[in-house]
Amino acid sequence: FVVLKADDARLADGFHPYEAASDLRWTDGRATLPAEAFAGFTGSVEVAVHLAATTQYPKEGAAAA
């Protein structure tokens, strides 16, 4: 059992810096989990992600609704 919290320094590729005041870390939409978090596991692995919030940004040049 492995838990990666928002302040884990290994969350770097595709992540923005950790925000201590809110205890959160944003992604750029292409975040990857560090391979070493899966070291020692054999067979199938389940990944559970806890989201605090999500948002959608309009495409560049799209008309406002």
Q: Your description of this structure?
A:
- This protein has 65 residues and is largely without helices or strands.
- It contains no helices and no strands.
- It is extended, with a radius of gyration of 15 Å.
- The N and C termini lie far apart (45 Å).
Write the layout of secondary structure elements.
Layout: no helix or strand
Could you give a quick summary of the protein structure above?
The protein is low in regular secondary structure and 65 residues long. The model has no long low-confidence stretch (mean pLDDT 88).
Secondary-structure class: little secondary structure
What is the C-alpha radius of gyration, as a whole number of Å?
15 Å
Helix content: under 10%
**Molecular shape:** extended
Q: Beta fraction of the residues? A: under 5%
Low-confidence blocks of residues: none
Number of strands: 0
Keywords:
single chain, 65 residues, little secondary structure, 0% helix, extended
